[in-house]
Amino acid sequence: MEFHQFFNRALSSWMNQEGPDSDIVLSSRIRLARNIKNFSFPTVFTNEEALQIVRFFEITFSGKSYGHIGRFVLLKMNELQPIEKRVLVEKHLISPHLAEDAVFGACLLSENEEASIMINEEDHIRIQCLFPGFQLTEALQVANELDDWIEEHVDYAFDEQRGYLTSCPTNVGTGLRASVMMHLPALILTQQMNRIIPAINQLGLVVRGTYGEGSEALGNIFQISNQITLGKSEEDIVEDLKGVVRQLIEQERMAREALVKTSNIQLEDRIFRSYGILMNSRIIESKEAAQRLSDVRLGIDLGYIKDVPKNILNELMILTQPGFLQRYAGGALRPHERDIRRAALIRERLNSWKNK
Predict the structure, then answer these.
(1) Is 282 annotated as a binding residue?
(2) 3-state DSSP call for residue 179?
C-alpha cells in the first residue's frame, strides 16, 4: 500500500459507495474507547509507557490484514508534518486531539480507510469504523470484530460493574460513541433546527458540528451522537440513535417537499445562484464554499441539477479544506492564497464534469 495515499486522495474508497438514505445521511461512525490493563491512562502515563504501547501496536498489527478492510499501516504523529495531520483530521480519520496534543500518539489506518485505530489519544485505544449512508448496525459489527481482534493480544482495563474503564467518566461502560453525519439544509431553511436540537438533547443525544465537539456545522452538516455510555448495551445505544435519525430523515424529507411546493422558484434560484458562484468565483472563503456546496448538493438530490454527481460534492467538501489546499500547493498558504486556490479548484472540478 502506498503510504502517501492517505494524504493525496480526498475521498476514501468507502466514500465512493452509495449507502442507505445517503441523500441525507452522509456517513455512519462507531467509535470504541479502550485502555490496556496495568498501564497508566494517557492523562498520566509516562513517556516510556506511551512508547511501549506504540511499539506493541507497530509489531503486532502494522502490515497485518483484517478481512475486507485490508492491511493496516501505522502512522506516528511525531513523524508527520502539520499539514499531513490536518489532512487526516479533515478526512475524519483521526481526531483533532490526536493531531494536536498526542505527542506520542499514532494511528493504524486500514487500506480502504474504513477503519482507524487511534493510539494514545484520550484513551490508549480508539477504534473507529466509518460506513457510507445510514449503516450504524453494520459499522458496529465491524468495530466489534476489530475490538475482538485486538483483545486477542491484550487485556483491557475492565470492571465487572462499571464496564470498560476510560479516561473520561462520560465514556465509562460500553466506551461507545455512535454517530451519523447528516445533511439537513431544508430543516435549516425552514428554521426548524433550533427547535429540534433541544428535543434531541433531552433524549440523551447531542448535536455537534462537522468535526465534533466545539466545531461549526459547516454546509448544514450536523453530527448526531449518543451521550450515554453506561447502563445500556451497545445494541440499545445504537437502536436509540437509529430511532432519532429515522425521524430526522423523515422531517428533512418533509421539509424538502414543502420547500418545493411552497417556494419552488426561490429554492431553484438559491440553488442555481450558488452553482453559478462556485462555477465562476475567483476568491471564496471556506465557510461560503461549504454553504454553496450544500445548496448544490440539495439541488442534485432534488433533481434540479443533473450534470454533477453527488461524489464530486463530497470530494470538494474535503478538497477545499485548508489542509488539503496546502498539501496540493506543496507548502503553507496564507488565508487569502487559500481562498484563491479554493475557488480555482472548485471551478476546475465542476467544469470537468460539465464538459463531459
Answers:
(1) no
(2) strand
Q: Is 210 known as a binding-site position?
A: yes
pLDDT at 2 (0 to 100): 53
Find out whether 1 is annotated in a ligand binding site: no
Domain boundaries, the chain: 1-17+29-173, 263-355
The answer on whether 92 is annotated among ligand-binding residues is: yes
Superfamily of 1-17+29-173 according to CATH: Glutamine synthetase/guanido kinase, catalytic domain (3.30.590.10)
Q: How is 217-271 classified by DSSP, letter by letter?
A: -GGGEEEEEE---SSS-HHHHHHHHHHHHHHHHHHHHHHHHHHHHHSHHHHHHHH
Q: How far apart are CA 113 and CA 12, in angstroms?
A: 6
Is residue 71 a known part of a binding site? no
How far is it, in rounded angstroms, from Cα 114 to Cα 111?
A: 8
**Does residue 307 have a pLDDT over 90?**
no
Amino acid in position 19: G
User: Do the annotations mark residue 186 as ligand-binding?
Assistant: no
Q: Does residue 216 register a pLDDT over 90?
A: no
Higher-confidence position of 170 and 275: 275
- 158 vs 217, higher pLDDT: 158
Average pLDDT over residues 310-327: 84
217 labelled ligand-binding: no
Global confidence as pTM: 0.91
Does 31 carry a binding-site annotation? yes
